[in-house]
Amino acid sequence: MKVKKSFEEINAKILKGEAVVMTAEEVSAMSKDYSAADIVKKVDIVTTATFGPMCSSGMFMNVGHSNPPIRMERVTLNNVPAHSGIAAVDLYVGATEENPFDEKYGGAHVIEALIAGKDVRLKASAKGSDCYPETEIETIINKSVVNEMIMFNPRNAYQNYPCAVNTSGRMIYTYMGSLLPNVGNATFSTSGELSPLLNDPDMRTIGIGTRLFLCGAQGYVSWYGTQFKTSGPKNEYGIPETNAATLAVIGNAKEMSTDYLKAAYFEKYGVSIFIGIGIPVPVLDEDMAHRVSIRNDQITTTVCDYSKADHPAVAKVRYDELFSGNITLDGKKVRTASMSSVAKARIIAAELKKWIEAKSFQLTRPVEAFPTATTLNSLERK
Amino acid sequence: MKKRLVLTFPANMVDVPLTYNLIKDHDVVINILNADITPGREGKLLLEIRAPKENVDSAVRYIESLNITCNPVKKSILLNEEACVHCGSCSAVCFADALTMDRKSRQLLFRPEKCIACELCLKACPLQLFELNFN
Question: Which of B14, B89, B107 to mutate to test the interface with A (most CBs of A within 10 A)?
Answer without folding.
Answer: B89
